[in-house]
Design a protein that fits this description.
Strand order of the largest sheet: 4-1-5-6-7-8
Oligomer: single chain
Structural class: alpha/beta
Distance between the termini: 34 Å
Radius of gyration: 15 Å
């Protein structure tokens, strides 16, 4: 069983209109992604909050941690906006939760025809099933530990942080 906790972000269909300083929301449904992929694993989905990740603060991260701790499931998938995904992974990693936690997002809006969301979701689910306990980010075919990852804004991708 995989417990999926959603937080919004591009993968959830939230796009920030920086000109008008507001969020544009479109309907993205993880169950539709999984339905078209004909998945056979058991999962549950619930929402922690629905925000552009640039607006996520430590109170939100604490709420997310509480939902993770309250879950009876050891494998947690968190959908998250990419702007602050590494910061949330670092926050959760520092708590030393005894679960396998994978954060995943998309660079291209989840409702866009050319989105990377389905691939990233599938990759994250597969990774989650084989990783040891800890906190990870799974994006665009790579898995990163929580303590050595950052988003390179120029390349719009996640990279290893030099320790």
């Amino acid at each position: 069983m995989i417990h999926i906790i959603t937080t919004g972000g591009t993968i959830g269909g939230i796009e920030n209109d920086t000109v008008n300083n507001k969020d544009i929301k479109s309907e993205v449904n993880i169950e539709i992604f999984f339905g078209t992929a004909n998945v056979s694993f058991e999962y549950s989905i619930n929402e922690a909050f629905n925000k552009d990740s640039r607006l996520i603060n430590n109170e939100d991260r604490q709420l997310l941690a509480e939902k993770i701790q309250a879950s009876e499931v050891d494998k947690i998938l968190i959908t998250h906006g990419t702007f602050t995904m590494a910061k949330t992974a670092e926050y959760l990693g520092g708590l030393k939760l005894e679960k396998t936690i994978v954060l995943v997002g998309s660079i291209i809006l989840g409702s866009n025809q050319n989105t990377d969301a389905p691939f990233n979701l599938g990759y994250a689910v597969a990774s989650l099933q084989f990783l040891d306990k800890g906190v990870y980010i799974a994006m665009n075919g790579e898995v990163f530990d929580w303590f050595n990852v950052y988003k390179n804004l120029e390349e719009n991708r996640f990279k290893l942080r030099k320790l």
